[in-house]
Design goal:
336 residues; alpha/beta; D-Maltodextrin-Binding Protein, domain 2; 9 strands
Length: 336
């Protein structure tokens, strides 16, 4: 009888801890789309019992956090690029996170030096070339300003975060003055005014509007899986620039803990989960991005494009030049 009573008391003593776990939650603001995030948070909740509430948006999340201030419900922000991560930190909307798990999973060059943000995936800023008119050619980003390509290049807006990040990296490698000369030469080589998204650049090559275009690697995978757009991808070759020197420029998606996170402990658990094997694999398979955690493989389709050398320049270093890149774009009137 005594043992039964003891067992019952032990069982009752466990109820509050399970209740606490069941009541834990994390509130997320996400620039990433539902098809990618929902499978990840569903598995996280199943494993931990922590509920995840997600607000999805295409823009305006930093402004929303500013308006909400200390009354915000957001604990974590998921972004699509380094520019939005820096916007959050520049506005003082984030806080540092100390986690051995995250630091082990995310390489040092892919996280903030002060631990205010961390990359979750990388994508290459590839150069796509016409198989028919350019063929197999090793290229560098510096070649975008070469006179031999005058009137042959397409790109999206210079003010888009992907382009801004590439220009910021050029400033890091070459200094402001030389990078400005390069950007002016790049503009002079454009076949049309900067416009459209990354898919539209590949389509423009197919239509003969240009021979070379900039685009993120994962868009190429999406086009290949789209029956209507597959013909665009089949007309171009995906190239990884600067393989003979510093390596290809990469951009990142990432995460940051909000300054006024009310569920900090649970949010950090989610952050750690997002850098671990399963979540990294989901990102890789579903959206054809490169995992940041070493040992997690890209999707078979992405792997079929071959291995490449990535620029090891710190994302923090690139981010420092973001405002200079925007200034330079205005000076050369890139989008006009």
């Amino acid at each position: 009888m005594k043992s039964i009573i003891t067992a019952a008391a032990l069982a009752l003593s466990l109820v509050p801890s399970f209740a606490t776990m069941a009541n834990e939650e994390v509130n997320v603001y996400s620039y990433r789309q539902p098809f990618l995030i929902n499978p990840v948070v569903k598995d996280f909740t199943a494993k931990t019992g922590i509920k995840v509430n997600v607000v999805f948006a295409k823009k305006g999340l930093s402004e929303r956090l500013q308006r909400e201030g200390k009354h915000t419900k957001a604990d974590l922000v998921l972004t699509t690029d380094i520019s939005r991560l820096m916007e959050l930190t520049d506005k003082g909307l984030t806080q540092a996170v100390t986690s051995d798990v995250i630091n082990e999973n995310v390489p040092a060059n892919l996280r903030d030096a002060d631990n205010h943000w961390f990359a979750l995936t990388t994508r290459v800023r590839n150069l796509y070339v016409s198989k028919e008119r350019i063929g197999d050619m090793a290229l560098r980003y510096e070649d975008l300003s070469s006179p031999k390509f005058k009137g042959k290049i397409c790109t999206r807006s210079g003010k888009h975060p992907y382009t801004v990040a590439l220009i910021a990296s050029m400033i890091s490698h070459h200094g402001y003055d030389d990078a400005k000369v390069w950007l002016a030469g790049f503009k002079a080589n454009l076949a049309r005014r900067p416009q459209g998204n990354d898919r539209a650049q590949i389509k423009a090559i197919t239509q003969g509007q240009c021979d070379i275009a900039l685009g993120n690697s994962y868009y190429f995978g999406k086009i290949l899986k789209d029956e209507k757009q597959k013909v665009w991808a089949e007309s171009v070759a995906i190239t990884f620039p600067n393989q003979q020197d510093r390596g290809a420029h990469i951009n990142v998606s990432g995460m940051a803990l909000t300054k006024f996170a009310h569920n900090k402990t649970a949010a950090i658990k989610l952050m750690e989960y997002l850098t671990d094997d399963l979540a990294q694999s989901i990102y890789a398979q579903v959206n054809m991005e490169y995992p940041v955690k070493v040992g997690v493989n890209p999707s078979p389709l992405v792997a079929s494009w071959g291995e490449f050398k990535a620029d090891q320049l710190s994302m923090s270093e690139i981010a420092k030049n973001r405002k200079l890149a925007l200034k330079m774009l205005d000076q050369v009137k890139f989008d006009l």
